[in-house]
Design goal:
heterotrimer; A mainly alpha; B alpha+beta; C mainly alpha; A: mainly alpha; Cytochrome C Oxidase, Chain A; 2 domains; globular; B: alpha+beta; Immunoglobulin-like; 3 domains; five-stranded mixed sheet; about 40% helix; elongated; binds heme-A; binds dinuclear copper ion; binds copper (II) ion
């Protein structure tokens, strides 16, 4: 059983041991300082338990990283030892083991991110299916089943709230990892580098997600939490122990986000191939750069606000509880200062993928490359100044509302530039409908719906009605599916031959697309309508008299279609990975440098640095190329 | 050129179709307040913009997909065009103009929605996990100022009300879809009291729903809103202002309703959030610490005044509000106890 | 690929990376400062002024010495480098003792006592944690320096350590003002 010798498995063992040890440590410290280990008063007892468990979990997360050997080279440096920068592969081990090891190759890390992301989406999707069954009709029935009480210790509305909150945050974590997958796998390849700037930091950034994700999911078994993904205090100060797991798990995923983004920025700025000026970069790199700029700054604020809530719970410090002198609105400012820009983190890479794939299938240049590139930066820049549009009715200072309405509406401008450029790209092309292209087109249409439902939320008067209704739910499912889920699927299909050397099954891909597109349209449009009609968010049940039953049932069916579509996708990629048709070279007839190399991509991406000699997307311009793969005219050195 | 012409015509048709569909009036709840009229006007404006931009992009895309698709056996690339500076500038500037204009309109409608009427009547709204309470100041015919407490929000038609929103624990939110307005309710005393103004303009019964997640009972945190004629409102208020001159049990039931006890406790034997009151009085109650007590008058009174003193087995401390001592008079507590007592006979 | 990149290339990359990290980290402290302004406004906690001034001066001096250490190694003067960095480390430890060991004990409130307690312990705590990691970093660099690592040409670790230490110092300057000088004590 080789699996038991992988870093992954060792990390898991270390995490379990570390958690137990950490709990022991906290208990020992309490004994030393003369603090009680239990209390006859149930409330105090719960608090003491929470302190012990949280201590254990923090030590456990750190132990995972140490046990998995993520810090190995850094510890060596600290001791003054040298380490090698060479990628070496132990050929005595089977290839799959690399994916469970602390590997520094960006392609391995990219795939690790991708698989972890899909797993999180699977969990988040499963939670959604569970609460969708409940919502399919009025009256609380399914979630009151005995089995939940037995398995989890709670049921009913609290279970609904927990599933709904976990669905939201696990999906978002899935998105963040998916973005890690795309930027790690693609950026070095597209800029002509052989790896990221800091491979060890890169590995750390991936692996910290593993304990993070496990801790986040463990929330389900530790009482859950009923605050929604936003975790507003004072409610989050009173929620069960599961709340802490949510806060700390997300904190770790945030750490990953920061470390990963620094790597992306440095790689793009310092490691581009010869001749690749910024305006000759493949367009995805612009998107990745803009994303990283948001990630490495704003993320700190969600980290901070979550830590403060943890501290408030553990040590009774009063930051946010207004009954103790704190300020609940302050939390919302700190939280949205990250979480608004974060929504553009979710979509920018996806929009980059759209811009990247369109020219290949339309066989035409990307219309207005420069404008598309700068619009990413524009969105990123404006995104820092709009956060309070989530707080129009929160009771913040009223004078803040109007300026935030203006800034929010301005985001429509750079986003609009992208849409118009895509439409112009499609105009008079020679369009080919392969699975990745279908997903690209689906993404554009769905994201458009998400985008145009933004302005009604942004003008305060209409938001007074819409805030915390399902209209918001419909708005962000549209933006996130259009901005991430569809482009992510497109990217996986498109680069699948590059990753595996094999082709996915085209027929299944097309079925996947139609299942998902139709199912999603049913789901999100109904969400929008229900919201306009006044359906509140985050309710476990709705009054039958409102007459929503029929729509809710259809919505559930739509949701299941999306879920089954994604399962088909999983089947397709897992099967094609080993059984798919072998591919050679440039499957899509793309101009991009990575497609000028064999499939799967060799261990060292480019044996020889290439030189950029033209524009990236000059399809249809005779005798033009983007890259000269062999600028020195030598035969590549044998490996 | 012919392509552009066809697309243009299709965009117009599609915009009209989608726009008429969205502004058809079926997509928003009934309009029951002055504010709703203003808000819905802005909604319709948005719907037309949505119709136009969705049509514009989708028609171009669909048209391209059909007309410019690769026909069977066709080879080669599309028409080479890199971009057009002037076009790009146009589709940057025009949307800037539109959004700025939208923002100006947005500001004006907001001002309209929040317009103050100096004659507005004031109602204090108290939200707690998971109940609503409404307090009116009234001066009775004898000239005595008293407070009327109700669990139903009764409002006079065509009269602006100023709602002062208080929360006792976590954040809640005041939302009546038919009124189109919403405001979060913050805990923390006077400093955190927020205000909301509505002018109901239609008689009827509506639901006030808590719109900010506030825990287990969020779903059921719903209260009745009744909009009635001004004269009817006055008489309702005076009736409420009179002392409760019913029997103790009936008064107790009324307080249990008004002060939100029945938001958590039931009288029919089911357990939702808190122990049921049916058959409670005079029976043994198992406590969380393992002991057993008999639910007599004293026990019930302590349970109301100091809920954490004795916790019922299977329930959590801190769920039941701790401040009923301040809110309820001793007489009211006695009457509630009498009511609970009546549920055992 | 087996092209070995030059030290200069890597150095430039590392510098950029570190500066990005510093900017990123600064956001935590900005957030804390904002929280302080919102929660305390124009009041400030009742603190031991003398002690605050003392630790601040200490940290300033240490920052200066860190700079000396970096300059010395750049000139190839190892003993002076080691001496300076060692004192920096010791001053860092004294700072920690001063804040955590003394000021936290002297403060008339605990973390659970109102907004003042919350803000004070959060700001000093987050900062102290950074000082603590800084001290560990200093120790590693000092220890490796003692064993003959680093040269006038190649001493990225020393430079990184210095940047990080100055950053911690700058943060404290703001926090000192925020906690000890701004507003009226209550
Ligand atoms: C994934 C990403 C994502 C994206 C891209 C967006 C994009 C936008 N969002 Fe959204 N939003 C979310 C995710 C996203 N949002 C989430 C998750 C929430 C809820 C959080 C929660 O509470 O749980 C939310 C909530 C949210 C709110 C708060 C609602 C409330 O709770 O009351 C608001 C309010 O202003 C808002 C506005 C906007 C706007 C104006 C845009 C704009 O960027 C849209 C711009 C795009 C277009 C407008 C379309 C294309 C443009 C044209 C074709 C040009 C011409 C158009 C015009 C001139 C109008 N969003
Ligand atoms: C990326 C983000 C994302 C995605 C994809 C989804 C997907 C879905 N979401 Fe939602 N949702 C959110 C983000 C997301 N959601 C957020 C942030 C909230 C707010 C939470 C809050 O209010 O706090 C929310 C809230 C939310 C609500 C509102 C709940 C409420 O307010 O009470 C509803 C209700 O219908 C809903 C439904 C669904 C459904 C049916 C799907 C379906 O489309 C799900 C289908 C499943 C998948 C798309 C993934 C399946 C994947 C696989 C099977 C992969 C397997 C592959 C391998 C293992 C290799 N979601
Ligand atoms: Cu009160 Cu939700
Ligand atoms: Cu936002």
């Amino acid at each position: 059983m080789r699996f038991f010798s992988t870093n992954f498995f060792r990390g898991l063992i270390a995490q379990i041991a570390g958690t137990v040890m950490g709990m022991g440590l906290v208990m020992a410290l309490r004994v030393i300082f003369g603090l009680p280990l239990s209390s006859p008063i149930e409330a105090d007892d719960a608090h003491i338990r929470e302190v012990i468990v949280v201590g254990g979990v923090i030590v456990g997360a750190f132990s995972f990283l140490v046990g998995a050997g993520v810090f190995g080279d850094w510890f060596k440096w600290a001791r003054g030892e040298e380490t090698s920068d060479e990628h070496t592969v132990d050929s005595s081990k089977p290839n799959w083991m690399r994916y469970f090891s602390v590997d520094f190759d960006h392609k391995v890390i990219g795939v690790q991110y991708g698989v972890a992301s899909l797993l999180l989406l699977l969990f988040g999707g499963t939670f959604a299916m569970l609460f969708r069954i409940e919502l399919a009709q009025s009256g609380i029935t399914f979630l009151n089943s005995e089995i939940f009480k037995v398995l989890l210790g709670y049921d009913g509305p609290h279970l609904y709230n927990t599933l709904m909150s976990l669905h939201g945050i696990v999906m978002i974590a899935g998105i963040l990892l998916g973005i890690g997958a795309m930027s790690n796998y693609l950026v070095p390849m597209l800029i002509g580098a052989n790896d990221m700037a800091f491979p060890r930091l890169n590995a750390f950034a991936f692996w910290v997600n593993v304990p993070g994700g496990l801790i986040l999911l463990s929330s389900l078994f530790l009482g859950g939490f009923d605050t929604g993904w936003v975790g507003y205090p004072p409610l989050s100060l009173r929620a069960p122990l599961g709340m802490q797991m949510f806060l700390f798990g997300v904190f770790l995923i945030g750490v990953s986000s920061i470390a990963g983004s620094i790597n992306v920025i440095v790689s793009i700025i310092t490691m581009r191939a010869k001749g690749m000026s910024l305006l000759r970069m493949p367009i995805f790199c612009w998107a990745a750069l803009a994303t990283a700029l948001i990630q490495f700054t704003a993320t700190q604020l969600i980290g901070l606000s979550f830590q403060l809530v943890m501290l408030e719970r553990l040590l009774d410090m009063s930051f946010f509880d207004s009954l103790q002198g704190g300020d609940p609105v302050l939390y919302q400012h700190l939280f949205w200062f990250y979480s608004h820009p974060a929504v553009y983190v979710f979509i920018l890479p996806g929009l980059g993928i759209i811009s990247e794939l369109l020219p290949v299938y339309v066989r035409k240049p990307l219309y207005g490359y420069k404008w598309v590139a700068f619009s990413s930066l524009g969105i990123a820049a404006v995104s820092f100044f709009v956060w309070a549009h989530h707080m129009f009715v929160s009771g913040m200072s009223p004078f803040l509302r109007i300026p935030f309405m203006y800034s929010t509406l301005l985001v429509a401008v750079p986003t609009g530039v992208k849409f118009f450029s895509w439409a112009a790209t499609l105009w008079q092309g020679k369009i080919e409908f392969k699975t990745p292209m279908l997903f690209t087109l689906g993404a554009i249409v769905i994201f458009l719906l998400g985008g145009v439902t933004g302005p009604p939320l942004a003008t305060i008067a209409t938001d007074l009605h819409l805030h915390d209704t399902w209209f918001v739910v419909g708005h962000f499912h549209d933006t996130m599916f259009g901005g991430f889920i569809f482009p992510f699927a497109a990217a996986i299909y498109f680069w699948f031959p590059k990753m595996t050397g094999r082709m996915y099954n085209e027929k299944q891909g097309v079925i996947h697309f139609w299942l998902m597109f139709i199912g999603f349209m049913m789901m999100s449009n109904l969400q929008l309508v229900l919201g306009l009609l006044g359906m509140r968010r985050r309710v476990a049940d709705f009054d039958a008299a409102l007459g929503f039953d029929g729509m809710q049932l259809a919505l559930t069916i739509g949701g299941f279609m999306v879920f089954f579509g994604m399962l088909l996708f999983a089947y397709n990629i897992i099967r094609s990975w080993t059984k798919g048709e072998k591919t050679e070279g440039n499957v899509w007839d793309s101009r991009s440098p990575e497609w000028q190399r064999p499939n799967p991509m060799p261990l060292h991406n480019y044996d020889q640095p290439f030189e950029v000699v033209g524009e990236p997307y000059d399809y249809g311009l005779p005798n033009s190329t983007y890259v000269n793969m062999n600028p020195a005219g030598e035969t590549p050195a044998a490996h | 050129m012919i392509h552009l012409l066809i697309v243009g015509v299709l965009v117009v048709i599609s915009t009209l179709g989608i726009g008429l569909l969205l502004t058809g009036g079926w997509i928003l709840p009934q309009q029951a307040s002055q504010q709703a009229i203003t808000v819905d006007w802005l909604f319709d404006l948005h719907f037309w913009f949505i119709a136009f931009f969705v049509s514009l992009i989708c028609v171009i895309i669909l048209y391209s997909l059909i007309v410019f698709r690769r026909k069977k056996g066709e080879k080669g690339d599309g028409v080479y065009m890199e971009g057009n500076q002037r076009l790009e500038i146009a589709w940057t500037i025009i949307p800037i103009g539109i959004v700025l204009w939208m923002a100006v309109i947005g500001g004006q409608t907001l001002a309209d929605v929040e317009r103050r009427d100096p004659d507005a009547i004031t109602v204090d709204v108290v939200a707690a996990q998971w109940s609503w309470r409404f307090e009116y100041e009234v001066t009775t015919a004898e000239g005595v100022a008293t407070k009327v407490v109700s669990d139903t929000l009764v409002l006079p038609r065509n009269q602006q009300v100023l709602l002062r929103l208080h929360s006792q624990d976590v954040i809640h939110s005041f939302f009546v879809p038919e009124f189109r307005v919403k405001q979060d309710i913050l805990p923390g005393g006077e400093k955190y009291v927020r205000e909301l103004r509505v002018t109901p303009n239609t008689n009827g019964n509506f639901s006030l729903m808590c719109a900010e997640i506030c825990g287990q009972g969020h779903t059921t945190m719903v209260a009745q809103v009744q909009v009635v004629d001004g004269s009817e409102f006055e008489s309702w208020l005076n009736e409420q202002a009179a002392e409760c001159n019913l029997s103790d049990t009936e008064c107790g039931q009324r307080w249990a309703q008004t002060f939100g006890c029945l938001g958590c406790h039931t009288t029919d034997g089911t357990t939702v959030i808190a122990p049921t009151w049916l058959g409670l009085f005079g029976h043994n109650v198992e406590l969380a610490d393992g002991s057993t007590v008999v639910a007599d008058t004293n026990y019930l009174r302590t349970s109301i005044i100091d809920p954490n003193a004795q916790i019922v087995a299977g329930f959590n401390p801190g769920v039941m509000p701790q401040n009923f001592d301040e809110i309820l008079s001793a007489e009211q507590i006695d009457q509630i106890v009498a009511f609970i007592e009546s549920l055992s006979n | 690929m087996s092209v070995v990149e030059s030290y200069a290339t890597k150095l430039a990359r590392n510098r950029l990376g570190l500066w990005l990290f510093v900017i990123s980290d600064a956001f935590v402290f900005i957030g804390l400062f904002v929280a302080r302004m919102v929660l305390l406004g124009d009041t400030r906690p009742h603190l031991e002024q003398g002690l605050g001034l003392a630790v601040t001066i200490l940290l300033l001096v240490s920052s200066f010495l860190m700079n000396r250490a970096e300059v010395e190694i750049a000139h190839g003067n190892r003993p002076a480098f080691l001496r300076n960095i060692f004192i920096t480390m010791v001053l860092g430890i004294i700072f920690l003792v001063g804040v955590v060991g003394v000021e936290w004990q002297l403060a008339p409130f605990g973390p659970a006592d109102g907004q003042a307690g919350a803000v004070f312990y959060a700001m000093t705590g987050f900062h102290a944690f950074h000082v603590f990691t800084g001290v560990i970093f200093l120790f590693i660099v000092w220890n490796n320096g003692r064993r003959g690592h680093y040269s006038a040409e190649k001493h990225w670790a020393v430079e990184a350590c210095a940047i990080y230490w100055h950053f911690i110092d700058v943060v404290w300057m703001f926090f000192y003002v925020g906690l000890y000088l701004l507003g009226t004590p209550v």
